[in-house]
Write a structure and sequence with these properties.
This protein is mainly alpha-helical and about 210 residues long. About 80% of the residues lie in helices and about 0% in strands. The longest helix has about 30 residues, at about 180-210.
Length: about 210
């Protein structure tokens, strides 16, 4: 259950930064309501779950080869998360400028799902982000032969991501009349701040173990 809960947190964190899929989901909720927006979210969940599985099972399989380099793995992962968080904080998306060209991929369930799946799957930083996070978790990473643990971690990521996308779709559908760029900036600031704090905590833990 610890791996499952950890996965939920990771799923929420990696889904929160405002990028093309978030913008498309917001736009579909704004124009067509909850169901259309949720379709895009499910597409992103499927792609994130695929990348999470690659990272989780890959890390668990080779973990015993990297046990002697734990500090380096945690240090690099922590720095990457701080960097991702900083870039997220400094990003200022604009709903009208960025969503409209990519958000008009049909209003049905399947077109939205496939469009979001493709957007997430072709994001070059997605799998690297999962590898960085999973490789930096230390004791929260399943042992190299703990495949049920890895499966629970991936399942948690899927649930956390789905909760995020369902929440976004429901919230935007409810408050669609008050949506603006300032709202998007606040989401980015919060998500980026969480990523940076997570990275700093990992770095502090690695340094503590190194000194101790």
């Amino acid at each position: 259950m610890l791996f499952f809960v950890t996965g939920i947190g990771i799923g929420l964190i990696v889904s929160a930064p405002v990028g093309p899929v978030n913008l498309m989901t917001i736009q579909r909720a704004f124009r067509h309501g909850f169901g259309s927006a949720l379709a895009a979210g499910i597409g992103a969940v499927l792609a994130d779950t695929l990348y999470a599985a690659i990272a989780a099972f890959g890390v668990s399989t080779i973990a015993h080869f990297l046990s002697g380099h734990r500090f380096a793995i945690q240090a690099v992962g922590g720095l990457l998360l701080v960097g991702f968080g900083w870039l997220t904080v400094r990003t200022h998306p604009h709903l009208d400028a960025e969503v409209r060209p990519r958000g008009e991929v049909g209003t049905g369930f399947l077109p939205g799902l496939l469009a979001a799946f493709a957007m997430t799957l072709t994001n070059p930083g997605a799998v690297l982000g999962f590898v960085a996070i999973f490789g930096s978790l230390g004791d929260l990473t399943p042992d190299h032969d703990d495949y049920p643990g890895a499966l629970m971690l991936v399942a948690g990521v899927a649930v956390g991501a789905l909760v995020w996308w369902a929440g976004v779709a429901a919230l935007v559908t409810r408050v669609r009349g008050h949506l603006n760029d300032r709202w998007l900036d606040r989401i980015n600031l919060g998500a980026g701040g969480l990523l940076m704090l997570f990275g700093i905590a990992i770095l502090a833990s690695a340094l503590y173990e190194r000194v101790g």
